[in-house]
Structure formats: structure tokens, C-alpha cells
Amino acid sequence: MRLAWIFPVFLASCSFGGGDKDDPELVTRGAVCGDPSIQGVVVGDVPGNGACGIANAVEVDAVGGVLLSTPATMNCRTARTLNAWVKNDMKPIVGKTGGGVRSLKVAAHYVCRTRNHKRGARLSEHSKGNAIDISAFLLRDGTDISVLNDWGTGKRGKILRQLHGSACGPFGTVLGPGSDGYHRDHFHFDTAEHRNGSYCR
Length: 201
Known about the structure:
Number of strands: 12
């Protein structure tokens, strides 16, 4: 049933660049979360086993004029946080390197699972629609800034460290290479609230 109404919404709401006209080729399905720079489609409630699931979920295609490599399901708080970080931090940090960022390579978004897939562990923030994992920043010249390949090396490694640091504060949890072996190839961002402020490793 969902496809029956997504298709006409797509035709009616396609726009070039959404709220950000940096990319004239950016074609998405419409504004969500009350912000024209967050493009995607409203999903509604996503049920899940136990405590998993998302209330009022959205499937996000692009934020701040930057595409996501695959549509990512999350709640609006996470979508707004990602959008603000892309516009206020990511874009200025990457600057004109490789012509600027065209797309974020999404490694994971909503999934009902425990932290790091460990049996008996607490539920991951992914299971609540609070998280997104990014493994690379795809540039307009066809190259990328890869967490796995570029962390700790040269100019692109420096950019990655700046991106990691800038996400600490906007996001409640920021994990990357050096935090543990599970995050050597991607950044984990989530909007969990911690009593002592953001947790960043």
C-alpha cells in the first residue's frame, strides 16, 4: 500500500535542490520535518520488537543539499541534527576539497539490534531511529574521503578528525576509529542524551 501513495507524492513534490540550491541535479521527494532542506518522505510509525521502533519516522534522502547514498529512516530530531551539522560544520570543514561533498555514504540507519550486535547488550540507538553511520564523504570530482582509508593520513585524515570533533555537541554520541574495533571504518552519530553531556570517542 505504501508504494501506491509514495509515487504520486514523488511526482508532485520533486524539486531541484530543496532548500539548498548548491546542487541543481538534486532531485528528491519533498520536505519533511517542517524544513525544506531536509528532503525525503514521511513514513509514520515504525513498529519493532520489544523497545525497538520509531514514532513519526521519516525516510531521508538529502540534508542541506547533500544526498544520502541510500534513504535513511530516522526520527525528526535526528534528521534536524544531521541537517544542521551538514550545513554548519561539514560543508565549511570540507570546503572545496574535491569540489565539495555531493553525498554521504550511509553505512547504517534504523535497525532493531543491540549495540555492536552483541548478544545481551543494551539496544543500539539505531533501534530507536536516533542514529546514522557514515563511512565516507563522496565528493563531486568522483573521489571520496573514507573513514577506513583516510583516517590519520594526510589532508583528508585531518578533515576527518575535524568532522569527528565538530559532531561532538550537536550529536549526543560520536564514535569513530580509536573508539573500538567496531568503528574503525565509519562514524556513528546519534542523538541520545547523556547526563554528563556528549560522549565522543
